[in-house]
């Protein structure tokens, strides 16, 4: 019995999809376990992104918003990290100020 050859691009796409779904579930569970109340927007964001990843394999359609092999766009990944940090109780570092060097 011969197996069909595995397409590396398809395997990478499936792996990215599984990783994104795992990260979304982990963020939701961490917030529930810590007792952190997510805002309505954050809950809706997690749910809609999860639905789109399950349905389409990725949560964005515009190829300019992220690499082709990824399931989340760059901004969606940033927002997911912010939600996960909020759930874990991490404080956001103060914004960096850009300083100029010494005059002269």
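^ structure tokens above, recovered residues below v
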């Amino acid at each position: 019995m011969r197996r069909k050859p595995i397409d590396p691009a398809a395997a990478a796409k499936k792996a990215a999809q599984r990783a994104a779904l795992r990260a979304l579930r982990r963020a939701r569970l961490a917030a529930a376990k810590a007792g952190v109340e997510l805002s309505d927007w954050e809950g809706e964001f997690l749910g809609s992104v999860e639905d789109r990843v399950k349905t389409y394999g990725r949560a964005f359609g515009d190829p300019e918003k992220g690499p082709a092999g990824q399931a989340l766009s760059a901004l969606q990944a940033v927002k997911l990290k912010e939600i996960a940090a909020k759930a874990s109780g991490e404080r956001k570092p103060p914004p960096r100020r850009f300083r100029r060097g010494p005059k002269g």
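The radius of gyration is 18 Å.
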